[in-house]
Amino acid sequence: MLNRLSTKWMLSGFLMIIIVLFSLSACSDSKSSGQSDSQVKGGAVVYRDTLNVAIASEATSYDTHRDQGNSPKMVGDGQVFEKLVTLNAAGEVVPELAESWTVSPDGREITFYLRKGVKFHDGTELTAIDAATSMNRWIRYFGIATTLAKEARFVEVDRYTLKINLPNPAAAFVDILAGAAQPATVTTAASNENLDVNGFWKEYIGTGPYKFVEWVQNQYILLEKFDDYVPYGDPDVLADGKAGYKYGFLKKIYYWYVPDPITRVMGLETGQYDAIFALSVDDEDRVKNNPDLEVVPALNGIAYMQVNKKQGPLKDVNLRKAINYMLNNEDLLLAQMGTHYVLDSSYMNRPQYWYSTAGSQYYNQQDLVKAREYLAKSNYRGEPIRINSSNAMATVLQRQLIDFGLNAQLIAGDSAASSSIAPDPSKWELTIGTQVIHPIPVIKPFLDANARGWADDETLQNYITEFYAQPTKEEAKAVWDKIQLYCWEEYIPTFLIGHQDNLYAWNKKLEGVVTKEGIFFWNAKIRQ
């Protein structure tokens, strides 16, 4: 009898231990995926409150409507600011600040219905007036949107509804709102009026999970958790591209401006930084050989050159054709990307619907005979070709141009200096850059008549108008093939270098990072 009771007590005790352990495990799992640092302390995993990130470039402004650089997008898009709609991992348009939207049968009237109860960082509620004034300001500064909207602007229908009546059918307009290179972010109506002497926002007030708290130029940007953030989506799915539920686990995110690549790596090794942008290919093996660190490639669209076609020697299409025939794109990519590139002539990436091989016969030819024929046809007489970039690719480009007999000069200082002269066509001829993956091809800035590069060619712009007028995606794709062929064969709005990954690195204690055309930290956590 005693043995039986002892056995029963032993079994009962064993079961109780199992239940307690299971409960602790479940509690730990819940906290590691959905609670703050203070809540997980004492559990199996302890997370820190603060993340330190080293970035390579600093913007002249973090006004996402106006600044065309990567830094405002990396810091602001999705973290500080949100949009009416955004893109999921498959590149599909999904709601963000909008609960839903409708398009009229004729494709001209687009109506957005806002989520209710969404708060800005200043405590005010998002309304249709805020969204409409933000979208109208964005239309003013984003050339493709200006072209499509013409004089049309968003208007308030009621407190949570806004609409726009476009002059022509433009089903792609919603795609542009979701994925434009200059994000169509929403701020308060007051912020859109509170501008500095250059017309940039004085304050950065969004609806995202992090507030823009402080910017000490040439030092750091500080974001802090917004406690009144109103999330959307499925809380059990942490990320779907740039869409989905955002927890905001971290209390503070510091973006430290560290222009020197080796200093960024050394800071990552010592623990000064938890993640770094723009890992140099020269330092890739060094980071890979550190068991505590991880190299993270993230597809980032294309590497290309902005070409100043407004004034200066490259306004001459024959000179542009000469350079295009001469370029050795693989050497350019190797200098900057290591093995993280693909030689490809398409303006769009695989496996996007818009991927095209049209004009591929003009890409990476390294045909000096043809190049010299077009150089002889040009009006080039030794004028400076100023390269407004200072990376490894720019150095190789300068050498290629000089070897070809052109007067190529590197003029860029740091990223802020480069950005400051970019809007002025009298100051530069070429700028090397990267472009994120766009939802449709014709919104690429180098095809924009008003963006830097100034692609105001009448034939090109007529083709783009034709593209937008197509009733079906299949018919629009046929027009896009014509556009890409025309660009390679006749106009040369850009020198496409190739497709590339951007390299990032972080401590392996970091988790939950979104890698969609960059790295974003709205669901990131870092273990002690």
From TrEMBL:
<comment type="similarity">
    <text>Belongs to the bacterial solute-binding protein 5 family.</text>
</comment>
<dbReference type="InterPro" id="IPR000914">
    <property type="entry name" value="SBP_5_dom"/>
</dbReference>
<dbReference type="GO" id="GO:0043190">
    <property type="term" value="C:ATP-binding cassette (ABC) transporter complex"/>
</dbReference>
<keyword id="KW-0732">Signal</keyword>
<dbReference type="InterPro" id="IPR023765">
    <property type="entry name" value="SBP_5_CS"/>
</dbReference>
<dbReference type="InterPro" id="IPR030678">
    <property type="entry name" value="Peptide/Ni-bd"/>
</dbReference>
<feature type="domain" description="Solute-binding protein family 5">
    <location>
        <begin position="92"/>
        <end position="416"/>
    </location>
</feature>
<protein>
    <submittedName>
        <fullName>Putative ABC transporter peptide-binding protein</fullName>
    </submittedName>
</protein>
<dbReference type="GO" id="GO:1904680">
    <property type="term" value="F:peptide transmembrane transporter activity"/>
</dbReference>
<dbReference type="GO" id="GO:0015833">
    <property type="term" value="P:peptide transport"/>
</dbReference>
<dbReference type="Pfam" id="PF00496">
    <property type="entry name" value="SBP_bac_5"/>
</dbReference>
<dbReference type="GO" id="GO:0030288">
    <property type="term" value="C:outer membrane-bounded periplasmic space"/>
</dbReference>
<dbReference type="InterPro" id="IPR039424">
    <property type="entry name" value="SBP_5"/>
</dbReference>
